[in-house]
Design goal:
With 352 residues, the chain is an alpha+beta fold. Helix content is 23%, strand content 30%. A 10-stranded antiparallel sheet has the order 1-6-10-9-8-7-2-3-4-5. Strands 14-13-12-17-18-19-20-16 form an 8-stranded antiparallel sheet. A hairpin with a 4-residue loop joins strand 7 and strand 8. The radius of gyration is 30 Å and the shape is elongated.
Amino acid sequence: MSPKVFLGTAIVTVITLAVAVVGVMSEGQVNTVKTSNEPAFAVLRKNPDAVSKVILSDAHNTFTLNRGNDGQWTAPDKFDYPADGARVRELVVKMADMQLIEPKTDRPDRYHRLEVEDLDAKGAQSRLVRLESKDGTILAEALFGKPVNHKTGPANTGIYMRRVGDKRAWLASGDIRADVTIKKWLDRHIVDLPGADVSRVSISPQGAQAYTVERGKGESDFHVVDLPKDTAIKQSDVNRLGSGLANLIFEDVKPKDSMTWPAASDEAKFETFGKLGLEVRLAKVEDATWIAVSAAYLGDQSDQSDDAKAARTKADDINKRAGNWVYQISKYSADRLRRPLDQLLAKSSGTS
């Protein structure tokens, strides 16, 4: 090989290696984050079970969740209504597992870029989470900002945060859902009555004809009781009445004795094949529909079979849960519980 050819080859090799090194370095800068492995909340990590109070705040709202001696979480800002314990525990565990990954700015004028500014700052987007023990000891407190949707340290996601009292912001591991909407932290399920269990539904809408639909054991379709012959129905709509109390959730809640119930109201009654009965009263108050729910065993009171005992137990559970409350439900849910009979009838072929 001539010296000129050798020199040319060497130059090409050096250039290729340089490009490769730059490429590797660039890739590392984009995809690799140095992990510090420092717990974000060392005190919390040692004893997450000590958390008895959670306070969530943003620039506009704040509320508290408390854990009672029985281990149940409630919302004192919402009449001590039961909170979603699973969601609260998820928050505590995620904060206990959180690690500081990469230090970020310590300049207050730049906090807004990461949304970790103080709550009283103009246009603040941060969310404050504070976890306390029963005696008021602060176990963790931080301002959470923008999420990071790629692998961050040991977690698949990350979030920018700043511990209260610290100037330094951090990129931390984990996904903290610090939603400051109290409704989303409540146990919003009112009742869940599977449509397949329902044998009979009676609807009494205000200002319209009351009616009943029912079906026998083993039948899939409901029929309208005492419907005139040759009157066609929308079968799918009639069948849909049976699932009116399936996974019913609320939009708002208040104590039953705090509400003056209007004289005029709608009513829906459900009965299962197992003789569990549920009664729902509906009233419109300030353009919102509120309901009251009660349950009872409708079978032979002397029946001590397992099915009868199960129905009685479920009725007791529903009354214990919902008996002292009234619930605001969505328009969609309300319309299913007070649907007029004429909306279930099929138009005749001669009707335009």
